Amino acid sequence: MAFLFEILRRAAGDLMRPQVLTIMFLPMLLALMLWGGLFWGFGTVWVAGLEGVFNDSPLPGWVGPGIAGWVVGMGVYTVLILLLLPAIYLTALFITSLVFMPILLSVVAHRHYPALGRHYGGSFLGSLGNGLYALVIYLLIWLITLPFWLLGPFGVGIAILLNAWLNQRLFLYDALAEHASKEELATLRAEGGWPLYGLAAFLGLLHLVPVINFFAPIYMGLVFTHYGLGQLARARGEATT
After folding, report:
1. What is the model's pTM?
2. Is 98 exposed, middle or buried (0-12, 13-18, 19+ CB in 10 A)?
């Protein structure tokens, strides 16, 4: 556990590096701009479509004509929120993975692992494929389990586990792609165990905290870079700084 706290501490310190400060809020802002633009362009269509689904369901008959309009309206905007918030979250993570992880990797490697050899076991195409695979699996499971997300603690548990899987799957590849060989990359990703998933679950919770959620993707990228390079250095028996 001590090494996980050390990783979190080091990543927090690296947030203050000039290269990181300039990009700290960009993933979330870009994701908000993208989905805000889509909602501005297609929001009326989305709302009308969801209203049609609710009106064609048995719900208006169950609640009665007096409050059916209010219930349908609440249901429509509740579903929109449940759809848009994960979409913004996923978009910010994907942007961080593809665009900003090389910057974060450069900061962490130069400062803490300057002697760690580079074997280039991964690539941009590998990162893109890994990211798309993670997003597709995440969305499929999210859609299947969506009804359970409304069941209080049970839904929260599903969300935490699913986000933990996504976070480690998405970022660990990028953290190791430049320094690890293909064999090392496969081994370290397979051997993560509970420390890796526990770390990923904790980082996923940061997206629920106001203000912090705006720079959580960048912080997450730093944490996984520290974790990945640290594990690689230990596997090779090399020292860190």
Report:
1. 0.88
2. middle
